[in-house]
Amino acid sequence: MAATKGKRRRKVKTLPWDSASYLKTPEDVAYYLEAVFEDGDPALITAALGDIARSKGMTKIARATGLGRESLYKALSPEGNPELATVLKVIQALGLKLKVAA
């Protein structure tokens, strides 16, 4: 500890990360979802759909799905547990298609 005595420690400045602000193009969204689905974690998939919905405008997505904005925020949070019907509505409202490949 003697080596650090008298030296000032620099404070590290951190900024919050928001994936939604980086999802600008349909390709960005597709690559993001592809990576998330490869991971296979349902909570991560739900959160990613929430990020994408926020990038497009949660109010707009809520209207398109017929769901309430607040309930959509809750369902698509990392702690959310949306029904499959909700996930499919959101995917459709985002203009995405869910495909299965062998």
Attribute tags:
elongated, 102 residues, 5 helices, mainly alpha
Description of the structure:
With 102 residues, this protein is mainly alpha-helical. The chain has five helices and no strands. It has helices at 26-39, 42-56, 58-65, 69-75, 84-93. Helix 1 (26-39) packs antiparallel against helix 2 (42-56). It starts with 25 loop residues before the first helix and ends in a 9-residue tail after the last helix.
Please tell me what the overall shape is. Answer: elongated
Uncertain residue segments: none
The number of helical segments is 5
| Average pLDDT reading | 90
Main β sheet profile: none
Question: Helix and strand layout, with pairings?
Answer:
Blueprint: H1 26-39, H2 42-56, H3 58-65, H4 69-75, H5 84-93
Helix pairs in contact: 1-2, 3-5
Summary, kept brief:
The protein has helices spanning about 25-40, 40-55, 60-65, 70-75, 85-95.
